[in-house]
Amino acid sequence: MTRLSKTILLGAVVLLAITVPFSHEYQPKKSLDKTNNINDYHEIIKERNNLTEDNLSRFEKGDISKEQYLVSFRQVISSSKLKLRNNKKERLAIKSNESYLGYTSYKNFLLGIGFPISGFILSILFLNIVVRNIQNSFKKKYYIIVSFVFIAAWGYWLAWSCLDFAFDPIRGYDWERKYYNIALYFLPTTIFIASYFLFTYFDTIEQKFRDAIKNMFGYIFESSNDLKEETIEDHKIKRGKLIRETLDNVK
Amino acid sequence: MSNNSKCKKEIVYSGLIPEAYIEEATDALSKYDKLEEEIKKRNEANQKASSFLEINKVYFRPSFNF
Known about the structure:
The complex is a heterodimer.
Chain A: H1 3-19, H2 32-61, H3 66-98, H4 106-133, H5 137-163, H6 177-222, H7 232-249
Helix pairs in contact in A: 1-4, 2-3, 4-5, 4-6, 5-6
Chain B: H1 3-14, H2 22-59
Helix pairs in contact in B: 1-2
C-alpha cells in the first residue's frame, strides 16, 4: 500500500469516527406522517371542544331541552372517541413502520450507535499506534492493556446498542438472553485479539523490509573501503542519492 | 538548523542506516542534497535566460531592414 493511499484510508477512518456521532443531526426530528397524525389529533380535540361549547350555549339559551342536550353531548363524545381511537391506531402503525432495528426511528438508531462506533474506531486506532510505534516492551505491554480496556468498553457499548435494541416486542428475542450476554463480552474480546494479531502481522512484514534495507546499507558502507581513490567522490554522491530516494519513499 | 544536522536527524529518525555508518551517510546525503540544490538553481537560471531570449526574439524583433 502506498503512502498516499495509506494517508487517504487513515483520513477517511478518522473522518468517519468524527462525523458518525453527529450524523443523526441531519435526520428530521419528526416524519411528515407523524406530524400529520399529531395535527389530526389536535383537530379532533378542537372539534370536540367546539361542539360541546356550542351545545352548552344552545342549552343555556333555551334553544334545546335537557334531553336533547344530553343526546347531543353523548353523540359528540362517542364520535370523538372513535376518531381518537383511529388516530391512535394510525400513530402506532406509523411508529411501527418508522422503527429501525429496535429503535423508535432511524434518527434514534444513528444517535444510539454513533458514539459507540466513533469510540470503537478510535480505540482500534490507538491499538494500531501502540503496536507500531512503541518500542519499549514494558511500555508496550502497559499500553496494550490500556487499549484492550478501551476496545472492551467501546466494543461492549457497540454490541449492546446493536443487539439489545434489536429486541422485537412481538417476535421476542431471536436467541435466549444468556447468549446475548455472552455475545456482549465475546465480540469485543475477539475483535481485540484479531486486530492485535493483524497489526502485529503487518508490523512484522514492514520490520522485515526495514531490516533488509538496513543490512543492504550496512554492506554498501562496509564495502566503501574497497573503492579506488579516484571513484570515492562519485560513489559518495551515488550513495547520497540512494539514501535520499530511500528516505523519501520509506518512512 | 544547518543542512548537515537536518540530514543527520532524517537518517537517525528513519532507522534505516546502521549506527556505525550514520556520520558517513550524513556526509553523503548532505553532499548529494547540496549538489541537487545547485543543479536546480542552475536549471532555473538557464530557463529564465532562455525564456528572456525567446520573448526578445518574438516581441522586440527589429521591424526595419537596411
